[in-house]
Every structure is written in C-alpha cells, then in structure tokens.
Amino acid sequence: MPSPAQGDERESMNFDGSFLNQLQRSSDALFQYLEQFPRVRVLVIGDLTLDEFLMGQAERISREAPVLILRHEVTRQIPGGGANAVYNLARLGAQVKVGGFLGKDEQGSALQQIFQGAGIDTRGILIDPNRPTVTKTRISGHARQSVNQQIVRIDRKSDDPPELDLQLQLADYVKQQLATVDAVVCSDYGDGALMAPVIAAALEHDRTIVDTQTDLHRFQSATLFTPNLPEAEQAVGYGITNQQTLLRAGQDLLQMTQARAMLITRGEAGMTLFEQTPTGLTSQHIPAFNRTEVFDVTGAGDTVVAALTLGLCSGASLWEAAVLGNLAASLVVRQFGTATTTTDAMAETLRSLLNLEGSES
C-alpha cells in the first residue's frame, strides 16, 4: 500500500487505473532505458541562446529617474533555447554534438565554455561575425525579506539570417555527422540556424526529432514533432478546446507534415501522442506527472525532447519515450529558470510513482 503522502501525490497527478497499470507493466523496461542513455549519440542542430540572470537587492529609488537601484548579488549564465536542449541531453548522460551559430562576442565564448565543460562536442558551432549571440538577460530584484521577482528582460539578437556560405557550411557538417549519431534533434526557435540547406541535411537521418516554433511544413517527413498546445493551434489554424478538436488536430498535423508521430504537450493536461500506423491513426494520452509543484515551465519543452530522444534511441516505443519525456519535465518545472535533470533523479521519481522505494528496479 502506498503511504498517505504517496497516495496524495498520485491523486494530484490524476492517474487513472489503466494508465497506472500500463506504467507498471513497462516499469522494468523504463529503468533499463535510463541505464542506456550514456550510450546514445545525438546531434543537435539549434538556435543557441545564452540565458543570463542578474539578481540583486533593492536599495532605494534612484534620484535620476523613478526606478529601483539594485545592489548586484549574483549573475548566472546558462544555456537557453536550442542550447538548453543540448545541455539537457548532456546532463542526462548522452554523447552530444552541437551545430549552430554564435556571435564573435563574450556571450558566445561563455556558451562555448559551458558546453565544453559539460563534455559536449562543439566542432559544429560556427562563428557568425555579423550577428550577435542570441542572449536573453533577465534582471530580477528582491527586498530584504522577499523573493526574487523579474523586473525587465533585455534581448540581444539579429533578425537577419546567416550568410548563405555559413548555412552551407553547417549543412555540410550535418551531413558528415549523420552516420556517427543515433538521432538528430532540430531545435528551432526561429533565430536562423535551421535554414533550408540545414533542414534538408538533417532530414536525411532516419530518426529526426523536431521541436520548432516556426512553420512545421519546413520539416516534411521528420520522425516526430513535439509542438506545445499554442504551437499546434497555430499550425492547424483553429482552437484545440476539447477531445474532438484535439483528435482532429493530431490527424491534421500528421497529414500536414507526413511525420511518423506527433506529440502535443498540453501543460497541466499532460501530453497526447498521435501515431500513424498501418491500421490508421492512434492516440494515447499521458497525464501530467506533476500538477501541484510547478514553479517555472521555462525550457520544459527542451527537457521533454531530450529525454524522449534518448528513450527512442535506447529502444523505447513512442509511448514509453513520451513517458520518459514527461517524467523528466515534471522535475525541471519545480526549479526556477531554465533547468535540467538527471537519470538518477528520474529513476528515483519513477520508483516513487510506482511505490518501489527500497526495492530493486
């Protein structure tokens, strides 16, 4: 019998009996897939962003203007955007290669150092002297007895695409790496890394996972897409407000992209997996693993993509891989800012869900 705390946790997750039974039946395999993550080789092509967090304590109102003066306490620099997908994969133990563009600036150097410190292969990163490294600087402040609150965000970026020569160089790098990796992840935030030559090269791999905030049509015949609910609604052109429109959207998205599968992530409503099989369209719902301790959803989609990709490359079915992605995301949303998790934390949480504390997985 689960303890009262575990029972409350399961109730908050709103697991029905059929899902929990299916999770129990797959439990041994899920633990085995987690153990396989360090053997997986992944190439991420993405829009690489540096997330900066500047935090300080409010001292007084400035005499120059009606604004707060903050006494600086700490600055944190962490991977964001497509770089967050890269870093999530590395933190989960995978062998990761990254391709994309950085500016010739301090922010680009900082991101390179973070990657190299995590053992990530950065030979596919090209320096674009005409565009800055995409940087999102969040300035937060707090009073002496209060929590940090964001005051303003400053974005550095260019709306111009990379020069064609750089696009072709990145496409060539992708082609050279295809035979050396188990999957290619396209992390598209619309900042210029995923242009037509690069997309064409990435789609030559037989396992291409796409997380895009732009037009899904550009990635025709990819293996799997992972849009969130607003992105799915934008793609299909209508609201997804009930089960009927959700099923319609899944079918329309698969027809639109000619993908093998579509995973629509829906926040606290969980996620729904659509798969095109020889016998027709199938859909499977996966409830949210964490609905009561959500602190910050920043970057959770990148975490889903990372864990899901590693699951697929470790032999998991699409449903099992989606469960692993959901599990990983349930851990990072409990943390402030762009965050990552580990296989140990995932295994511990999975044991808790299955009431396996103290037992051998």
List the helices and strands and how they pair.
Blueprint: H1 4-13, H2 17-36, E1 41-46, E2 48-61, E3 68-81, H3 82-91, E4 95-103, H4 106-117, E5 121-128, E6 134-142, E7 149-156, H5 164-177, E8 183-188, H6 196-202, E9 208-212, E10 224-225, H7 229-236, H8 243-257, E11 261-265, E12 271-277, E13 280-286, H9 300-313, H10 318-332, H11 343-353
Helix pairs in contact: 2-11, 3-9, 5-6, 9-10, 10-11
What does this structure look like?
The protein has helices at about 5-15, 15-35, 80-90, 105-115, 165-175, 195-200, 230-235, 245-255, 300-315, 320-330, 345-355; strands at about 40-45, 50-60, 70-80, 95-105, 120-130, 135-140, 150-155, 185-190, 210, 225, 260-265, 270-275, 280-285. About 40% of the residues lie in helices and about 30% in strands. It is globular. It is built from eleven helices and 13 strands. The protein has a single domain, classed as Ribokinase (UDP-N-acetylmuramoyl-L-alanine:D-glutamate ligase). The protein has a nine-stranded mixed sheet with strand order 5-4-1-8-9-10-11-12-13, sandwiched between helices. The protein has about 350 residues and is of the alpha/beta class. α5 runs parallel beside α6, α9 (about 300-315) packs antiparallel against α10 (about 320-330) and α10 (about 320-330) packs across α11. A hairpin with a 6-residue loop joins β6 (about 135-140) and β7 (about 150-155).
